[in-house]
Amino acid sequence: MDYPVLSKISSPLDVKNLGEKELAKLCEEIRAKIMKTVSKNGGHLASNLGAVELTIALHRVFSSPKDAILFDVGHQCYAHKLLTGRFEKFDTLRVKDGLSGFMRPTESEHDPFVTGHSSNSISAAYGIYKAKKLLGQEGTAVAVIGDGALTGGMAYEGLNNAGASNSKFIVVLNDNKMSISKNVGALARTLTKMRNRSNYHTFKDKFSQFLLKIPFIGRKLNSIVYRIKEGFKNALYRSNLFSVLGYNYLGPVDGHDIEGIESILKIAKSYNRPSLVHIVTTKGKGYKFAESSPKNYHGVSPFDIDTGADNNKKLNFSSVAGNTLCDLAKTDGKICAITAAMTEGTGLENFAAEYKQRFFDVGIAEGHGVCFGAALASQGLKPYFAVYSSFLQRGFDQIIHDAAIGKFPLRLLVDRAGIVGEDGESHQGLFDVSYLTCIPEMTVFSPSSYKELEYRIKFTAENDGMFAIRYPRGCEKPCGDVGFTADFSVVDGKGKKAIVTYGRLFSEALEAKSETDINIVKLNKIYPLSNDLINTLKGFEEIYVFEETVKSGGIGEHLSALLLQNGFKGKFKICAVENEFIPQMDTTEALSICKLDAKGMVNEVNNG
User: Fold this and answer.
1) Confidence at residue 234, expressed as pLDDT on a 0 to 100 scale
2) Of these residues, 31, 283, 285, 525, which one is catalytic?
3) Which has the closest alpha carbon to 337: 410, 244, 286?
4) Is 580 annotated in the active site?
5) Which of 151, 183, 376, 400 could cysteine-pair with 381, CB 3.0–4.6 Å?
6) Element (DSSP H or E) covering residue 443
7) Which of 366, 547, 548, 557 is an active site residue?
8) Domain 488-607, what architecture?
9) Which residues of the chain have pLDDT under 70?
10) pLDDT of residue 122
11) Which SS3 state, helix, strand or coil, does residue 44 take?
């Protein structure tokens, strides 16, 4: 398909000069380009299709990069990328050395902040806004936050802080699922239209100025009129949280009416206090499959545009974890499942359907999820919190304070542990080993296969304690019939060299063994490390630890300290990620670059 309008957009300035017909054509072309690219590369579809008109209106009213526009979660920024000079590179979305699927300041001056995780846009935009004022710079900052991201606690911290100021600060709520404030009746609808016209606000400001000029009683009279007006408005609109927090609430407005969005954004710009603009959009707009089932087209693998079919859908670690919990819940009424707005992503859709009373979606609020789970456990239930490794980072304090100190048996299913591939730096699960193994009372497992994952979930259901079971994104690789019920297993080879590894990398070690016939020590329980393991490892002369995590704080460092304390004199080397962020690329390619695949293991053992 040709893109006669979109291909000519080299910067947001070009968008400002388009007429009504060209804007309609631009929307059509943006959606077509997004669908074509995501169907090939995978990515976030429904949220981006819904935000096209909103993004165009934002760039027509504001002037990026002078005005910072932050999209939250950043996965709704595809149209923004296409309007800010990245059309020619858009086919490289989410591939190695290509465009990120999120906002990245290193990629463009139009991406002012990293927004890979949710709920940070208001804090970041307000910080940028205040910095501009302190530095005497022109421009403002706008936070564009989705209703899903608004379930995260950090969003409310930012709202509270910015709402208490007298700043011309703007938050745009992209509401594509829930109703924030319910308008009642024909009168309310009429007043909404009136309130969203610029002449209404001009008259209101001039009338207020007139009252204030009346000697002696002007200020009091203005205050009385204001209270009457607010009381009348609240009775009709049911006062919402944003008004209470100090925001001038504008909306709701049709999120697919560019002219209407522009009008209300200009009104927000005219205020000398914080404004929240409520935009209502349709997730998946323009693609019938995504409109009818937006959850299924949130984050997608490559798919067929004509049929909507995902040809790559297979059994994976996430679905195995969810199915195992379902099986256990049939006979154990204490088992509960918790997710942080990732029911499908963590394989819990069947559990949610079959055990509604024991399933809890806490929203994008991982800290709350951990504390809530610990509280369930404190009352004798068996909660499993299924959460992506990179998102669990936001619940670190609660793991320590709310679960570990009280010794409440919370079970963590740490999905997407290790390298995740195309989502890039913000989503790599490379830090959970380091931050989980520093917590007292925590036991960590890292299964290599579906059978081992099933076994560990069942094991944790039958035993009390704080457990974390970490497993990778995607499908298993063949691991043979190596035992996994003990704390560790040994696959004997020749000589006095040994590879120590766990999780997905065990399959790579088995492949390496076919060339080197080296001993392999597979860690089933990766933490805490047992005395039997240390005694076994002391029998080798050379030890190579391979792990899919950052080196600092990893299992290799724990092992090296224990071996040193126990008199080990041989060669010891840790092969892990060198404390750096891994950019987006195919997982297989990333493992190769990090020298964590079979070839890297062979080279290290032979030449290390």
Assistant:
1) 52
2) 283
3) 410
4) no
5) 376
6) strand 442-445
7) 366
8) 3-Layer(aba) Sandwich (3.40)
9) 177-212, 216-239, 311-312, 608
10) 95
11) strand
